[in-house]
Amino acid sequence: MELLKNRILKDGKVSEGGILKVDSFLNHQIDVALYNEIGKEFKRRFADEKINKILTIEASGIGIACVTAQYFDVPVVFAKKSKSKNLDGDVYTASVESYTHKNTNQVIVSKKFLSKEDNILIIDDFLAKGKALLGLIEIIKQSGASIAGAGIVIEKGFQTGGKIIRDMGIKLESLAIIESMSDTGLTFRE
User: Fold this and answer.
1) pLDDT band for position 84 (50/70/90)?
2) Which residue ranges make up the annotated binding site for xanthine?
3) pTM
4) Which of 4-18, 26-40, 79-93 is modeled with the greatest confidence?
5) In the chain, pLDDT over 70 holds for what percent of residues?
6) Residues with Cβ < 8 Å from 66, sequence gap 6 or more?
7) What is the pLDDT of residue 97?
8) What's the rounded Cα separation, in Å, for the pair 170 and 2?
9) pLDDT digits (tens, 9 = 90+) for 119-162
10) Taking the CB of residue 64, how many other CB atoms lie within 10 A of it?
């Protein structure tokens, strides 16, 4: 997706530790027009799938998932990173290690929102080592639902996550795959 790649080149910043900061348009301050184009592109790439729910993980994936859900006319379910008083009843859980935050969270989805009748599209902002995606896949498996695929805005192609997910036979569509990244710049996979 050229629009996204151009925006990453223009406004993205590589910081210490291999972190790509896109907080000026993707995951802190949000460019709603760009999100809209991202949602349209995910709809185009998964148009042949009979998706009835979108699953993401809090917090950065929620906005992208919501905009994308408009094009599929389906609800969004998001995995919470902590149990709250308004989360009642039985839940699905999975452990997710955060590459960016260097911690592990138990993510939680209420069982009343996922079932074996669902065909789920996973949406998230980043894919690096694949831990968040693997956690969401585990939750979907616990529910007995089907996985239509996963849509990722930015994939770090030089890390292992994309290969792990693709080797599982899951349709993975990343809108921008970064081939290499350093403080002097980055390149995309074609």
Assistant:
1) low
2) 20, 27, 156
3) 0.93
4) 26-40
5) 95
6) 76
7) 82
8) 24
9) 999 999 999 999 999 999 999 999 999 999 999 999 999 999 99
10) 26
Domains parsed from the chain with CATH numbers: 2-188 (3.40.50.2020)
Which amino acid is it at 113? F
Known binding site: residues? 20, 27, 128-132, 156
Residue type, 36: N
Residue ranges of the binding site for 5-phospho-alpha-D-ribose 1-diphosphate: 128-132
DSSP letters along the chain, please? Answer: -HHHHHHHHHH-EEETTTEEE-TTTTSSS--HHHHHHHHHHHHHHTTTS---EEEEETTHHHHHHHHHHHHHT--EEEEBSS--TT--S-EEEEEEEETTTTEEEEEEEEGGG--TT-EEEEEEEEESSSHHHHHHHHHHHHHT-EEEEEEEEEEETTSSHHHHHHHTT--EEEEEEEEEEETTEEEE--
* Helices 2-11, 32-45: crossing angle, 10 deg rounding: 140
